[in-house]
Amino acid sequence: MGAVNHSYTRTVFLAASVSLVLLTGACSSDSDTSSPATSTSSASSGAGAPAASNTCPTATPDAAATPAWTLDGDSGSIAVVGSTDAAAPSVTVDAPFSVAETQVETLTAGDGPVIAADAEVSVCYMGVNGRTGETFDSSFERGAPVEFPLDGVVAGFQKAIAGQTVGSTVAVAVTSADGYASGNPAAGIEPGDSLIFAISILSAS
């Protein structure tokens, strides 16, 4: 019983804290968020945008699914399977993984409007630490999306979403400078850690 309560407490703490982590990260970031410089490539836009939802899929992705994006970093590598209407994404890391430049990949392009850099967005996302290969936060695990102003989050998260279209699924490999250059102990992030986010963009206004 105690373990169940502890797990519940940890889940609630993460639900409350990591959106705060994302929101406060931009304030403490050493990076300049005014001029995004990312390497962006898009998948074909044959997939339509899913309808905006109040939930995030929690099912485990198909173990046999082909990664939509693989990336060799300056050290290590990653393979990302994007989320679907029914399943959460997965990020497989050959750790330690790090990048010297933030890189964005559109996994599936939505058919909604283009997202401005200062939009308020609703997304489902998971964040993985490249140094450890461990997930440090996931709204997919909680089953609920997060809403926030895009100009109030860490630079790498903003770079991943700004310029995309609503309904897209996106992955981004984020440098320490575009994430938490000074680290974030509450999330187990140390100075110098590169991060990987897999994101499903539900809506923007």
Give the key terms.
19% helix, 3-stranded antiparallel sheet, disordered N terminus, 7-stranded mixed sheet, 31% strand, 205 residues, 10 strands, alpha+beta, 3 helices
What features would you describe in this structure?
The protein is globular. It is α+β, with helices and mostly antiparallel strands and 205 residues long. The strands form two sheets. Strands 1, 5, 6, 7, 8, 9 and 10 form a seven-stranded mixed beta sheet that branches. It has a three-stranded antiparallel beta sheet with strand order 2-3-4, with no helix packed on it. The protein has three helices and ten strands.
Give a brief outline of the structure.
The protein is α+β, with helices and mostly antiparallel strands and 205 residues long. It has helices at residues 2-28, 139-142, 155-161, and strands at 39-42, 69-72, 75-81, 90-98, 103-108, 120-129, 135-138, 146-149, 169-174, 195-204.
